[in-house]
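Readers outside the structure-tokenisation community will struggle with the description of the input data as it stands. I therefore recommend that a typical entry be quoted early in the introduction. An entry of this sort, consisting of the sequence and the corresponding backbone structure tokens, reads as follows:
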Amino acid sequence: MNEQLKGVTATVDRRAPDNDVLRIDSEKGALHLAALKRKEKPDAVKKMKALIQSRLKRTDLVDLLIDVDNQTNFLHHFLHLGGDSRLSPATRRRNALAALIAIGCNIGPQRMAVPQPGY
């Protein structure tokens, strides 16, 4: 494997100067690759995607997480053991779910809380 790795490395090193999508930043010691151009999908792929999507039931992420939590109680791992006794368990679970969605979907807690007073 070591010999194979040396061979591949030598090939890459030999081709690097002629590679149009590779830029070497010697000041930062970094390599940068240009983004690949998106190719048009073949009609067969488009048809297969449409067929698969037509057969799948559309499910809201929040509904899915609530169903999974009802079956597994995974949200309790996101709640502080002491908790805030002023909040009901349902409110604490709702807040944990909102925080999980905000972070998981890269919305952020501030933007997630804007339309919902009390979160």
